[in-house]
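Thread: flavin-adenine dinucleotide complex, take 2
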Amino acid sequence: MRIVNGTCPFPRGKAVGGTTISNGLAYVRGHPIDFDRWSDMGNPGWSYEDVLPYFKKSEDFHRNNPLAPVDFNYHGTGGYLSVEYHLPPSRYLAAFLNANQELGYKLTDYNSPEQIGASPVQQNTKHGRRADGGSAFILPILNRTNLKVMTDSFVIKLHINEDTKKVAGVYFSYKGKIHIAKPRKEVIISAGAISSPQLLLLSGIGPKDHLNEMQIPVIQNLEVGSTLRDHSQYYGLTFASNISLPSQPLSNYIEEYLKGVGPFTISGPNDGIGFYQTSFEKTANYPDLELVIISPNATSTFFKDTFGWNDDTYDATWGGIDVSSSFSIYIINLHQLSVGSVKLKSNSPYDYPLIDANFLSDPNNRDIQVLYEGIQFVLKLTATDAFKTIGAKFQAKPLPACKEFEAFSKDYWYCSLRQLTFDVYHPVGTCPMGPDSNSGAVVDNKLKVYGITNLRVADSSVFPFTLSGHPNAPCVMIGEKVSDLIKEQYNRL
Ligand SMILES: Cc1cc2nc3c(=O)[nH]c(=O)nc-3n(C[C@H](O)[C@H](O)[C@H](O)COP(=O)(O)OP(=O)(O)OC[C@H]3O[C@@H](n4cnc5c(N)ncnc54)[C@H](O)[C@@H]3O)c2cc1C
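Output below.
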């Protein structure tokens, strides 16, 4: 087996060309019920009991914050992927944790089966430095003779024999030329929830009508890209506080960073995290809502640019706020019913695909109701004594786009939810796993693409639904698992 850039079973990382915005990633696996559901959908080998050993195998957990709640039965040490807490804990975090306790939520290790409750964020950093898939798993083994990493290469399509349905090669561009990598046994695509479906579609694996429309010969008719699932996040709740963190010279922050502490070492900046069950989730102890406290609010202009907010919206939500003493609480719908899609714009590999998140589109409006319940909960949480001690005060001015509604009435919040609900960059499920390709599945429980002899997909695109966690930790688990599936197939386990 050869590994080509972007076709290796590891998650986003600098070494393989992924995006790098925050310093570390929040490490959130999901609830045991997620994986039992995954298995019960006809995917043997993916229950919580099956996958927990893989989560633990890759983990190198450091309890560097003695006050953080931890259940050691669910953590591993000695793996490649470092997990630790950001230091030092902030006063915002203390207020968040105390406020949760005031409302009856316990402090919990959310990566144990007791996910509901609040905690400091477990993050993928090592002594405060980003520990992503590339730096954790690839850099330490770069000198292995059976591994070749070619950065700056771009996979453009698979060459599949129409008769045998076997992948004969992977075409990629490198230094201005097209090359082909030929597999001895099989090919594994790990290009992520957007690019994996794009590559399959470009190679003739996808819905036949769409391929016909793109003038791509159909090799295998499968629902590639027909389902895009994500966590939607409401960004509109900003609060002032009496905490003042005056800016320091850059050199001070760098000095702190070198010691593994301080603002440059935080993921996000996600300070604290909480998981909750709304009235819409009927399975006992199964969270469907997440809150993240972001402090201080240094990310405001970043979001303006990222999401393309106009000046009116930006001014109403962030305008005039002292970023050094304010915080936000983001609300995440974990089990979104709305389903989007990834399609090709053209049959050129150099065109970006068309991504339709299709948020808040479910016919019964459950997704918006979950987020609305989240807003009500945050307003209650920030009215606790714990938040009063830091002078928490809701800041936003009514959005001009929602001026027809009485400010902060239910109708107003629904309008605001439709203005300020965006992606949290957790796309999954575009090549979903399932037992039957006639019901939309693209890969089977061994991650093999239906109808193709020697092709697997191993990344976030195979999730059958959004989990109660963030996708990176489960992607690492998938990487661990696919290694064993391969060894099993070739009697090396
Ligand atoms: C800003 C941001 C913040 C996030 N924060 C968190 C977080 O805190 N916690 C968390 O759990 N998740 C987080 N995520 C999500 C998480 O990063 C992804 O879910 C995860 O990385 C998905 O892993 P993957 O292996 O499916 O794909 P990716 O990590 O996207 O890996 C795909 C790789 O394939 C390469 N590639 C794609 N196409 C090609 C091609 N044609 N040729 C060659 N190479 C190609 C890409 O460059 C990339 O390196 C965040 C995402 C973003 C964007």
